[in-house]
Design brief:
23 helices, 3-stranded mixed beta sheet, alpha+beta, globular, 6-stranded antiparallel barrel
Length: 685
């Protein structure tokens, strides 16, 4: 498969090629108006291959390449460069912006497509046949266990967070707090304040601080108010839309893209696949704002005002499509549909927010001295909005920017420490509650949400704006993760955990994001003309073919990790042969813990540095029999047969299985309880 030739096939049903050829027969010049990115350049040459031979006239080219239309590529082909569909921009592109299609950028897309195809097919075909042969009864004969250069790192992100949670060791710490009473015309205002020493990791120190802060009234040392500017959001691109839809609407990335495409086809919004987060200079924001001013029933009043400002100028112009915005055609609930209506409103609000003033938030901090001599300092802090600006458009609570419940309650009550004129430097206030310690424990991070995962994929270069939603949908649809509909968190399944842990033990370069980033870096060299497709693709295929053969030799770790994962899912299930399988289960658990530990300890920031030891290690080919965690030396002597706890999908799940063609105990397989393991665990057998 690594050496097989690739064939480009067309879906004949839309009859696109036939249509292009028909149109070309009445034309002399071909002008290409495709996306101004690499994929657009690739489509340019697909169009050229179909349409140029059918043009009415073909110019005679001289040996130096000249001939035909001056400045045209091959004498009769021109390429338009544009980033907006505004009439002025289109006219400018036609009159002054025509150039040549970029062959190098097109070839870079061909290279990525060939690598993704061959790597995905080779590993997926082996894995699927392996699992169907040995786990067909338990997991189903239609099971597909796929691998993808983007899909697998996407799953790895989810498993890495899960492993961080699983291996997390809570640590105790202490907080010292007190409360003061501020006299008002009504009831006293009780304000909680915390020690300025922050979190304390020594209980004795926390007790000493509380003791030193007790026994006397509190004195106000200083009161400060600082104003912070929270910038308006950038215009909406695809990844920002996917994150916002998941966070605020509870709509998954794949569904969001499907809905957004329907809104685009209905004429309510612009094209939904774009990496650009900057409006073109000639974009008419006023026309869209005028249209939205009629949406009095659902658009906040702040979004229909007149206090608009210029959009931010620090966005990204990827040269593909303009940001996602509403059009001058006002959407309706009936026209958009239920899911579409929610997303349309979100797109409208994000558009107006990008043109609204920045939010100004005032944070007031009061520092108190407690205890004899005022030896211990405590502080209280609240934040209120001086001007909410764009936050009113998105209907976002002020406490979105705050870090604890006390501040949030203060916002909701519209309380500031200075609003009553109660606090001044050196004011003495009554202590309502003496300083005391509060024992707390560190907590693990939560599982990744869809929004978190999209951000990580974007940062690490996994997928494109057009493909990220598909990769996330694939790991969900194939049962590698499950989605919590309430929190939008992605929790790896037993199969997902088993795959990533097995990859980690065999060759973590197959799943670490930095390896995909390395491939993308080589593909970019093709786009810049620094390397040829043959050099990059040939080198990558040789690398991954070696990894593939190493993976096949170590494939016995796949079922072993799956057995451990299923045993973790169903720990109370009895074993049919505890004595004979206990040593293997111990070895499997040790390997699982090793993979879990290694995955949890990986630094994501180190993966972003191609010169880091971690990235360099992942890019190197695995060395045979050098890792104790993946060698048979770490496994105990095994009895001829083995059984493990029943799986969650019925029947006994074999703890391990051999490579295709290895000897098997047919009677044991038929019963689904046992399988010969002695030879199967020896990769040299």
């Amino acid at each position: 498969l690594f050496r097989a030739p690739t064939v480009h096939c067309e879906d004949p049903r839309p009859r696109v090629s036939e249509h292009l050829a028909q149109e070309a027969r009445d034309c002399d010049i071909l002008v290409l108006w495709l996306d101004c990115d690499r994929e657009g350049e690739n489509i340019c040459f697909e169009v050229i291959s179909v349409a140029r031979p059918c043009l009415r006239s073909t110019p005679t080219l001289l040996p130096d390449g000249s001939g035909g239309l001056p400045g045209a590529w091959m004498g009769n082909v021109m390429r338009a460069f544009f980033s907006s569909l505004a009439p002025a921009d289109l006219c400018h592109a036609m009159t002054t912006g025509l150039g040549h299609p970029n062959w190098n950028e097109s070839r870079s897309v061909d290279a990525r497509q060939e690598l993704d195809l061959k790597l995905g097919v080779a590993f997926s075909r082996f894995q699927t046949r392996f699992f169907r042969e040995h786990f067909g009864k338990q997991l189903g004969k239609q099971l597909s266990v796929t691998y993808g250069p983007c899909q697998s790192p996407t799953l790895w992100f989810c498993v890495q967070r899960h492993d961080q949670i699983a291996t997390f060791q809570p640590t105790p710490y202490w907080n010292v707090h007190a409360s003061v009473a501020l006299a008002t015309d009504a009831a006293p205002l009780i304000v909680r304040c915390n020690s300025t020493r922050g979190d304390l990791w020594d209980h004795a120190e926390a007790v000493d601080v509380a003791s030193e802060a007790s026994g006397t009234p509190a004195r106000v040392e200083v009161v400060n108010t600082n104003r912070a500017v929270h910038a308006r959001p950038l215009p909406l691109n695809t990844t920002a839309m996917l994150r916002a839809a998941s966070d605020t609407l509870g709509i998954g990335p794949a569904d969001t893209m499907h809905i957004a495409e329907k809104l685009y086809l209905a004429g309510y919004t612009t094209y939904p696949r774009t990496e650009t987060s900057m409006f073109a200079a000639g974009f008419d924001t006023g026309a869209v704002l005028t249209t939205l001013s009629a949406a009095t029933e659902w658009l906040p009043a702040a979004a229909r005002g007149s206090c608009f400002v210029a959009p931010r100028d620090d966005g990204t112009n990827a040269g593909d499509h303009p940001p996602i915005t509403p059009t001058v055609k006002l959407g309706t609930q009936k026209g958009c549909g239920q899911g579409g209506w929610q997303l349309y409103q979100l797109i409208c609000r994000c558009f107006v927010a990008a043109l609204s003033p920045d939010a100004l938030l005032d944070t007031t901090t009061a520092t108190f001295c407690l205890g004899p001599g005022g030896g211990e300092q405590f502080s209280a802090e609240v934040t209120v909005a001086y001007s909410r600006g764009w936050m009113d458009v998105l209907q976002m609570p002020t406490y979105h920017y705050d870090i604890d419940e006390d501040r949030r309650l203060a916002h909701e009550a519209h309380v500031t420490l200075c609003a009553f004129g109660l606090l001044h430097d050196n004011t003495v206030v009554e202590v309502h509650e003496e300083a005391q310690t509060e024992a707390l424990w560190t907590a693990p991070p939560p599982h990744l949400t869809e929004s978190d995962l999209i951000s990580l994929m974007e940062t690490h270069g996994i997928g494109t704006d057009a493909s990220m939603a598909t990769h996330i949908s694939n790991v969900e649809r194939r049962g590698y993760v499950t989605l919590d509909g309430g929190t939008r968190q992605l929790v790896p399944s037993a199969l997902g955990l088993a795959l990533i842990h097995a990859y980690t033990l065999i060759d973590e370069g197959l799943v670490l994001p930095c390896v995909r980033a390395g491939m993308e870096a080589q593909v970019r060299r093709i786009a810049k003309g620094e390397a040829s497709l043959e050099q990059v693709v040939g080198g990558a295929l040789r690398n991954f073919e070696s990894r593939y053969h190493h993976f096949v030799r170590k494939a016995y770790l796949l079922p072993l990790m799956l057995a451990v994962a299923l045993a973790h899912d169903n720990p109370a299930a009895p074993s049919a042969d505890l004595h004979s399988s206990s040593s293997l289960r111990l070895a499997g658990s040790q390997l699982w813990e090793e993979a879990q530990r290694r995955t949890a300890l990986i630094s994501l920031s180190a993966l972003l540095d191609p010169t880091s030891p971690l990235s360099q290690s992942a890019l190197r080919l695995p060395m045979e029999a050098t890792s104790a965690s993946t060698s048979t030396a770490s496994l105990p002597s095994l009895s001829p047969s083995l059984s493990l706890p029943p799986g969650t999908r019925g029947g006994e799940i074999p703890a391990t299985a051999g490579l295709p063609g290895a000897p098997r105990d047919e009677e044991a397989e038929e019963g689904g309880a046992e399988i010969i393991t002695g030879a199967l665990l020896d990769p040299t057998s």
